[in-house]
Specification:
This protein is mostly beta strands. The chain is built from 2 helices and 36 strands. The strands form 10 sheets. Strands 2, 3, 4, 31, 32, 34, 35 and 36 form an 8-stranded antiparallel beta sheet that branches. It has a 4-stranded antiparallel beta sheet with strand order 5-6-7-8, with no helix packed on it. The N terminus is likely disordered.
Length: 523
């Protein structure tokens, strides 16, 4: 963190490279993820803000089909007033992955409905909605109501136990055939769909004939007008886990991905191994992978990516695996911890991802805790003026997991303030920064900010020549003080800036003991 902070502090004093004309921000929210809106500064730095971590477990393993684990590869969606958590569970046999549903009205207190859909050991009073699938369901508002919920996943296993309900350590005498699993290739990825998130069906043909061993993040990219899809891939050299990206049109989620099914890398690897290669390699552009700044052997295990509701703001929460395997640079660390922790990464286009802060965003637990060695993302939702980031925690090292032990998978929240990932901070001694030329629409300037008791933010608006505009000078500016996601800048008792809308202007913010998370010109 010291290195990241010093580096960013140095960059802040540089002019905005390649900028010609004003930055058009309209009335969209602007996050301070990087120096995009900071052309020059003094004593201001970008800081990663760690979330609050309540010590909680939202999903207890209190059902027979959860006695091995409850909560693995969870994903939370908010659909109107209802929160839905899709999660995997295992019984003690670990021979079948149950896809389960829990619901909540506040995102904190969860119930497991008896759906009567899929039985366990002959009992239909379960919350099981699928067998041997996993992933991150998402909502498609462009399709018909019966296809509102969607999910990319493999269906079934190549272990001979597909479609069997387990009882104890052996198969039940009767088997249950889950319709989406019939005739599915367990080494391919399919599009599954549902009208209510409970009753799932799948398209008959796979979108990709390669195995994907992690949830695939999908979101609608409003800026580009496409669905952005992030499946896990493996670098051909040493099979290092990374994440790639492809896109689909508004109604194209069920179409096969555009892949070279026998790429040069795949042919070469199959010649070397003498057997088919099942995973996705470099057939799609890789957008998130470890680099030489990372420890030897690091891999990207999961991603959990989102198009955040602000201008050109994409965020992701990758689980980084400190593995003991060779990385893409042939580096190996036999003493690596074999743990997984979540970092924060962001992008301005959903393609080029940046990781200036490489400290853990969510801390591993203390010895003996249920999240001592592994943490995986499980969904980001907005709840009032807060953001809930859900995660799963495991007590064991990744490759030395003792499935015979009686241990718990924790499902918990990390709580951010709204927009609160990164902030532009001025110390107690004070600082300031000036934006590049901006073109905005709207009538008031709103800040998401927090100050100390003696801290403040004062705003001056400059014209294109850098001259303070009468009526909006620093001397006329009122102090913004306190903690609010909706502070208003004002001058001589007025917050109206509509007379400047459409004109190229700069903002000069003079700050003391303050954190600025976002700004927005609102109507």
């Amino acid at each position: 963190m010291i290195f990241a902070t010093l580096l960013i502090g140095f960059l802040l004093v540089l002019p905005l490279a390649g900028q010609s004309g004003p930055v058009s921000i309209g009335s969209e929210k602007q996050l301070f993820l990087d120096q995009r809106l900071i052309q020059s500064s003094r004593n201001v730095e970008l800081v990663l803000n760690l979330p609050e971590q309540p010590r909680e477990n939202l999903i207890l393993k209190d059902r027979p089909w959860e006695q091995g684990r409850a909560g693995g590869y969870a994903h939370v969606l908010r659909d109107g007033a209802l929160y839905r958590m899709f999660y995997n569970s295992f019984d003690r046999s670990y021979r079948l992955r149950y896809f389960c549903l829990a619901v909540s009205h506040d995102g904190v207190h969860w119930t497991k409905p008896n759906l009567g859909l899929i039985p366990y050991a002959g009992d239909f009073d379960t919350n099981i909605i699928g067998l041997d699938v996993f992933g991150s369901p998402f909502i498609d508002l462009f399709d018909t109501p019966e296809r509102r919920y969607k999910l990319y996943s493999r269906v079934g296993r190549a272990r001979g136990e597909r479609d069997r309900i387990m009882q104890g350590d052996s198969p039940d005498t009767s088997s249950f055939s889950w319709p989406p699993a019939r005739d599915a290739d367990p080494q391919s990825v399919y599009l599954l769909y549902s009208g209510d998130g409970v009753y799932w069906q799948r398209d008959p043909e796979p979108v990709m004939p390669f195995y994907v061993g992690a949830p695939t993040s999908v979101f609608w990219d409003e800026d580009s007008g496409v669905w952005a899809i992030y499946p896990r891939a493996y670098l051909p050299r040493n099979r290092v886990r990374v994440f790639s990206r492809t896109t689909a049109g508004k109604h194209g989620l069920g179409e096969a991905f555009d892949l070279d099914l026998m790429s040069p890398s795949r042919r070469r690897l199959q010649r070397q191994t003498g057997s088919p290669v099942t995973g996705l390699l470099d057939e799609l552009p890789v957008v998130l992978k470890p680099d030489l700044q990372d420890p030897d052997g690091m891999q990207v295990y999961t991603i959990y990516a989102y198009n955040y509701p602000a201008q050109s703001a994409y965020v992701a929460f990758p689980s980084m695996w400190y593995s003991r395997r060779p990385d893409d640079f042939d580096r190996v660390d036999p003493g690596a911890t074999d743990t997984l922790e979540i970092q924060f990464t962001f992008s301005r286009d959903g393609i080029a991802w940046q990781r200036p802060f490489r400290q853990p965003l969510i801390s591993l637990g203390s010895p003996g805790s249920a999240w001592e060695h592994q943490i995986y993302g499980a969904g980001l939702v907005e709840s009032g003026d807060q953001l809930y980031f859900y995660y799963n925690g495991l007590p064991s090292e990744h490759m030395t997991m003792d499935k015979s032990a009686d241990w718990t998978c924790v499902t918990a929240r990390a709580i951010f303030r709204l927009d609160g990932f990164v902030s532009a901070d001025a110390a107690y001694e004070g600082g300031e920064f000036t934006t590049p030329l901006l073109a905005f629409t709207g009538s008031r300037l709103q800040y998401n900010a927090k100050t100390g008791g003696g801290g403040f933010i004062r705003t001056e608006i400059l014209d294109s020549a850098g001259t303070p505009i009468p009526g909006f000078t620093l001397a006329e500016s009122h102090r913004v003080n306190g903690n609010s996601v909706r502070h208003l800048a004002s001058w001589k008792g007025s917050a109206d800036v509509s007379s400047l809308a459409g004109q190229p202007v700069r903002l000069r913010l003079v700050m003391r003991d303050a954190k600025l998370f976002a700004l927005q010109f609102v109507r």
